[in-house]
Amino acid sequence: MQFTTNITEDEYVDANRLKARSLQRTAASLLAYFLTAAFWILLIGAWITEHIFHANILLGQNAAELQSTLFPGAIAFLLWIIAFRAYPIYSARRKFRNAQNLHGDLFQEITPEGLMQKTAHGSYGFSRWRDFSYWRESKKMFIVVDPTNVFCMIPKANLSREQRNEIRSILTAALPRQ
Fold first, then answer.
1. Which residues of 122-137 are buried (b: 16+ CB within 10 A; e: fewer)?
2. Which residues pair with 137 in a beta bridge?
3. What is residue 86's DSSP assignment?
4. Helix 63-81 and helix 23-51, axial crossing angle in degrees, nearest 10
5. Would strands 151-155 and 2-6 be described as parallel, antiparallel, or unpaired?
6. Which of 111, 148, 141 is nearest to 126 (CA)?
7. What distance, in Å, lies between the first and last C-alpha atoms of the chain?
8. What pTM, to 2 d.p., does this model score?
9. CA contacts within 13 A on the Cβ side of 90
10. pLDDT digits (tens, 9 = 90+) for 109-142
């Protein structure tokens, strides 16, 4: 099957997210969100009870001391979320803008033997399915990932339902899905 497509910045960001998706990252994100929420709810609750109700109901007599102890942790977890959620998106967008070979038409040929991609800038590559480790799918695209974590993108935007099903069947026969 042969087709020509363009890769948008949002699709490139989606492909990076899809490649990075794992159970460990999901668990770490949930832990960070939970701890950050707990710290901030405790701090805000203590501030409200102290300044509005003029009592230290939530944290007891040593409220100011406990607040000053919890505040660095609350900031650290907030920075953790920013570092692991916001920076990768910023980094992927910057990489896309700097990679001129991703701008323009992308000719792709998918066969039971492998994947061939040729860019409008003259880059050309063919990889056999045995050179890849696994494939993943999102609403916007398919990606195939090699053992060094380099991935090839197959955007779904200009593909018909039949073409998507054909790609899915070729990938299912050739590689494990993750």
1. eeeeebebeebeebbb
2. 142
3. I
4. 150
5. unpaired
6. 111
7. 23
8. 0.65
9. 6
10. 999 999 998 988 888 888 899 999 899 888 888 9
Alpha carbon distance 37, 176 (integer Å): 37
Tokens of 175: 């590689």
E strand residue ranges, 44-169:
105-110, 114-119, 124-128, 134-137, 141-145, 151-155
Structure token pair of residue 140: 């916007």
**Cα torsion at 145, 146, 150, 152 (round to 10°)?**
-50
Q: Which two tokens stand for residue 75?
A: 């900031």
Tokens matching residue 131: 């050179």
Q: Token pair for residue 101?
A: 């070979």
CB 158 within 8 A of CB 105: no
The one-letter amino acid at 95? K
Q: Which residue has the tokens 């490139």?
A: 12
Residue 28 is predicted with a pLDDT of 75
